[in-house]
Amino acid sequence: MASSLTCAGIIWAFLSFVCAATSCVGFFMPYWLLGSQLEKSVSFGTFRRCSYPVRDETRQMTVMVEQCGRYASFQAIPSVEWRICTVVTGLGCGLLLLVALTALMGCCVSELISRTVGRVAGGIQFLGGKCSCGEGMGV
Fold first, then answer.
1. Residue 36 pLDDT more than 60?
2. In whole angstroms, what is the distance from residue 60 CA to residue 10 CA?
């Protein structure tokens, strides 16, 4: 198969994919913050959490659920700031993945990536990187 990328472009495509995959895995993992609560180890990310407290209405007390899972709804994410972080980071990861997959397709399809498309993809990748690093919102 013919490629529309130079050697530098192929390296860019490979590194873009590795960085996008790493960002997506980091986004989905619930290990952003680690700590303890009610003498149990807890961790959470923007939309996933492990070992979290839940109110048990039958016993009228708070118990720890020792499993990992997503929040029941978007509104269940603890604060507005974490909701914004979830959206912005998810958008950044999506943009990084879009550019990386397009670049990988450019390795296999001739005339897919021109100089202009490469520049636009670089700009989109820059924006995605800013969003996924938290810099896009001035955090």
1. yes
2. 60
Facing residues of 37 across strands? 40
Domain enclosing residue 16, as ranges = 7-106
Is the full-model pTM beyond 0.85? no
Tokens of 64: 């720890």
Q: Is residue 100 part of a domain?
A: yes
Q: 132 lies in a domain?
A: no
Indicate whether 4 pLDDT > 80: no
Name the domain count of the chain: 1
Q: 3-class SS at 32?
A: coil
In whole angstroms, how far apart are CA 88 and each of 72, 81, 107, 121? 20, 10, 29, 19
Cα–Cα distance for residue pair 27/89, rounded to 1 Å: 7
> What is the full DSSP assignment across 68-121?
EEE-SSGGGSS-HHHHHHHHHHHHHHHHHHHHHHHHHHHHHSTTS--HHHHHHH
